[in-house]
Write the structure tokens for this entry.
Amino acid sequence: MVAERVRELIAGAAQSRSFLIGGAITLALALTAALSLLWTPYSATAMDIAGRLAPSSAEHLLGTDQFGRDVLSMLMVGARNSILVSVIAVGIGIFIGVPLGTLAAARGGWIDEAVMRLNDFAFAFPALLTAVMITALAGPGAVNAMVAIGLFNIPVFARLSRGAALGVWKREFVLAARAAARSRLAITLDHVLPNIAGLLLVQATIQFALAILAEAGLSYLGLGTQPPNPSWGRMLNEAQTLIYLAPQLAIYPGLAITLSVLGLNLLGDGLRDALDPRLRRGR
């Protein structure tokens, strides 16, 4: 049922230019990350001091960095690391936040109040600063970055799923199901989740983009993906001292981050337009 609603949403969104452009950019990002699992022009961690800061050429399409590493290979592997961290972080938010939100909507009372007060407490702290604090206390690394970013996603999905579910619980077909003595769990699985799946998918694309930005920010600060594994954020950090000598070392990862976030936001816009035909723009 949920999968069917998602397919219907994507089919409707395919009529939007925003969705098509965002989908193309996101697909290119995913294919680049998948390709890096099988092939890269060079090892992303191999150094060649004699060939350091080489310009773009047939041998190195995007040149080399200050350690002689191939920039294109580093960008490809960095895409893989960014996607991995973001997928797991958003997954944490969905698989914990959505059950909490739907539980609060289904049960109400003190359970609803407790979930919402926990959400308010989580939102009282800026997301990136909270992630920095967690990774600083737990230690730098990709795993801790996933957990830190994922913890912020939990209240986002909990609040969204609760608000959307409350609206579904007032619908006539849900009232009919309750009159037929169906359990709250059955109603949630059969009626509530399928009707809020579209909203959750749109929010997931937005949070995915934010997770890529957060991972890049943590890596820039040295709290995310650790050497020798490439990361777009750490590539920016390493390039800042060479900004006048080799500005392309900062341009390439910055452009990768920008395109990834732009693609995901356009994808989310297209999905949002499909949910509300009044918002459709690029027909």
In short: The chain is about 75% helix and 0% strand. Residues 2-34+67-277 form a domain with the MetI-like fold fold (CATH 1.10.3720.10).
